[in-house]
Amino acid sequence: MTLQIIQVGLGGWGKDWARDVVAKNKDVETTAWVEIDAATLQEAQQRLKLPVERCFTSLDEALTTVSADAVLVTASLPGHVPSARTALQAGKHVLMEKPFAPTVAEAHELVELAARQECLLMISQNYRFFPAPRAVARLIQQQAIGRVGNVNIDFRRYDNLAPVETHRHYHIWEPLLVDMSIHHFDLMRLVIGQEPVQVFCKTWNAPWSKYDEPAEGAMTITFDGGAVVNYRGSWVSTGPQTNWAGEWHVEGEKGELVWTSRGETQETASIQLLGEEKPTPIDILEIGPLDRAGSLAAFVHAIQTNTNPETSGEANLKTLALMFAAVESARTGLPVNIA
Ligand SMILES: NC(=O)c1ccc[n+]([C@@H]2O[C@H](COP(=O)([O-])OP(=O)(O)OC[C@H]3O[C@@H](n4cnc5c(N)ncnc54)[C@H](O)[C@@H]3O)[C@@H](O)[C@H]2O)c1
């Protein structure tokens, strides 16, 4: 059975979802597109050649006009909770872009609403759908490097060339921690297989940064199984660019795993045990649809099989809690425990 969806939010990333992800999935049919900004809706309608009668500026209107099983939320963060709430109240499943919600309380509210409505609520943590983090997570689970100790992660990009007035990204809330590091926080939980318990974070802006809020940061995160992550991230780094997942060095008692994923340079992972002279590449296995296609396929599969996806709203609460703890630590200058 084809899953009928309404897509909400047609900014840069939403248009990309419509064209490159949803349109290519044979199990899904989009029955309406919603964008709150009329000019953006018109531009998207023309660019993507969408039927005018299926384009709306309100999700409520779309829900009463077309049939749908689910709603895909690709709006910017202020649109996440209102769109998901409306969809769930109408009894529709929801797949939503990261970050889940602007407050932990609203995220909990949506998780409870989804449970009451017996609907699926899933967050698209698309960085999980790549072979390298999966391969490394499996090796860690199999104790290939023994107990995990120190984990060093670096993320560097130079997103500082666009005109400051028109580039929305320069003006969003917490562009590093909330918009970007959320991916890395979620990957830490997947790869290390432990849950975060405390974070001590500092953020800042380089003198040349065009961002309003901190575009750079560093933090130490402790995990419940004893792992300690040292993370450095920057949107305005003049150093060599990393892939989007960053560069990871995971030290265990028996040796080290090194990996990177999702970007311009090759997806790689290697292992070097104590006493070995050089690292051995790890077989990167096929994992099925990648990136957002993987998220969407997992969402469809979970609905078809009535099972919980690994990035359900409820499962994503810990990722979100780490993100908010990092924001609070950066603001107060103090370590913050994660409930
Ligand atoms: N997973 C990834 O790799 C990745 C990459 C880029 C962006 N994103 C996420 O995708 C989302 C959209 O990002 P973007 O770059 O397209 O942002 P954007 O600001 O370019 O576009 C967002 C669009 O959502 C619309 N919108 C806001 N509230 C709405 C509502 N209530 N109803 C309908 N439309 C609404 C806005 O009018 C805007 O056109 C964000 O959550 C962002 O974090 C994820």
For the record, the CATH class of the largest domain is: Alpha Beta
Order of neighbouring strands in the sheet with most strands: 14-13-12-11-7-10-9-8-15
CATH domain fold name of the largest domain: Dihydrodipicolinate Reductase, domain 2
Any idea what the shape is?
globular
Q: What ions, cofactors and ligands are bound?
A: nicotinamide-adenine-dinucleotide
Helix fraction by DSSP (H/I, runs of at least 4): 25-40%
The number of helical elements comes to 9
Main sheet characteristics? 9 strands, mixed
Uncertain segments: none
What string, H for helix and E for strand, traces the elements in order?
A: EHEHEHEHEHEHEHEEEEEEEHHE
Strand content: 15-25%
Mean pLDDT: 97
CATH superfamily of the largest domain: Dihydrodipicolinate Reductase, domain 2
Q: How many structural domains in the coordinates? A: 2
Query: What distance separates the N and C termini?
Result: 41 Å
Radius of gyration: 20 Å
What is the second-level CATH architecture of the largest domain? Answer: 2-Layer Sandwich
Secondary structure tally: strands? 15
| Helix vs. strand class | alpha/beta
GO molecular function: nucleotide binding
InterPro entries: Gfo/Idh/MocA-like_OxRdtase_N, Gfo/Idh/MocA_Oxidoreductases, GFO_IDH_MocA-like_dom, NAD(P)-bd_dom_sf
Domain GFO/IDH/MocA-like oxidoreductase: 134-257
Domain Gfo/Idh/MocA-like oxidoreductase N-terminal: 8-123
